[in-house]
Write a structure and sequence with these properties.
The chain is mainly alpha-helical. It is built from ten helices and no strands. Helix 2 packs antiparallel against helix 3, helix 2 packs parallel to helix 4 and helix 3 runs antiparallel to helix 4.
Length: 320
């Protein structure tokens, strides 16, 4: 009986406590219900937002890889604008700047004005995301491309003085990523750009204005029309030969052929026409260039190794 009585007393105490709590909480019941509903809505919204963000990231990376397959800067810049703030957008912007850099370097030998525009687009693209990039591999690639763009721009009249900025970026890259894939190349490039002969070449190349139709076989300093190695030699007789041509002028026999015929005691008694006479028919050269051996172009002093061409083998692929 005593045990049952104790249970009854405990139940009564609990009932009275719950009754008091209910009475005190009654004015706040509506607010409490609203708070519970709000918490439920927040949890549901977070769940929906998380799923949507995941889908958005997947779409951004998918569009990035499709744009990279197309290989145009416009497609990559569209991805960077559509998914601004995402990791995929940063990779897209750097890749678009790389394409502008490649086009600008190629146009340095055909159209300096277009080259300057492309190189400036590359620089603007790199700088637009420089402070947002956090991944080391992307930051390293950005610094490398930015340094190359300033170095290439130094080969134009509008970019004189940018060579110093390129040297600083190369050194920053080597110091920030001493174990990176660009560290050795950046250190060597910075040292080369500080050499007086390399700086002299860039000053020389900045004054060079290419012709509208550049020769398709690549570029060498001997191709420059005002380069000492490409100046034509004065002819010995007859009309002057074309600049850079090694074929003798019509009406004048090569000296080697004349000496060879004299030493051999040639018995050819054909009279030679006077090239100064207007009625004289031109005499064909005694030695014609071989049809199977191409003529050697005029040689000039060698330029520094690949001063402006972008390093495509050193590029990375974005990893999500």
């Amino acid at each position: 009986m005593k045990r049952e009585r104790r249970h009854e007393l405990q139940d009564n105490l609990l009932a009275r406590w719950l009754s008091k709590v209910t009475e005190k909480a009654a004015p706040y019941a509506r607010a409490f219900s609203l708070a519970v509903v709000l918490i439920v809505l927040i949890v549901a919204a977070w769940y929906v937002f998380s799923n949507r963000s995941l889908a958005n990231r997947e779409a951004a990376w998918s569009d990035l890889f499709q744009a990279m397959q197309k290989g145009t800067a416009a497609d990559l810049e569209a991805v960077a604008e559509q998914y601004a703030g995402s990791e995929a957008a940063l990779w897209a912007q750097v890749a678009a700047a790389d394409i502008h850099l490649e086009i600008g370097c190629a146009q340095l030998f055909s159209n300096k004005a277009d080259a300057v525009q492309e190189l400036q687009k590359a620089i603007d693209g790199y700088l637009s995301v420089r402070d947002e990039v956090r991944r080391p591999e992307l930051k390293e690639r950005l610094l490398w491309g930015l340094a190359r763009a300033y170095e290439s721009l130094a080969g134009t009249r509008q970019g004189q003085g940018e060579l110093d900025r390129a040297v600083k970026l190369y050194r920053e890259l080597a110091e920030s990523f001493p174990d990176g894939r660009f560290a050795t190349l950046a250190t060597r490039r910075a040292a080369e750009l500080e050499r007086p002969d390399v700086q002299g070449f860039y000053d020389f190349f900045a004054r060079y204005e290419p012709t509208p139709s550049a020769p398709p076989g690549g570029f060498s300093p001997g191709d420059l029309p005002f380069h000492p190695g490409a100046l034509p030699q004065p002819p010995t007789s007859g009309s002057p030969p074309p600049s850079g041509s090694t074929q003798p002028a019509a009406g004048s026999a090569p000296s080697s052929a004349s000496e060879g015929s004299g030493e051999a005691g040639s018995t050819d008694s054909t009279p030679q026409e006077d090239p100064g006479r207007s009625d004289a028919a031109p005499v064909e050269p005694m030695i014609q260039p071989s049809a199977t051996e191409p003529e050697k172009p005029a040689e000039g002093p060698a330029a520094p190794a690949d001063p402006v061409a972008p390093d495509r083998e050193a590029s990375d692929s974005p990893q999500p």
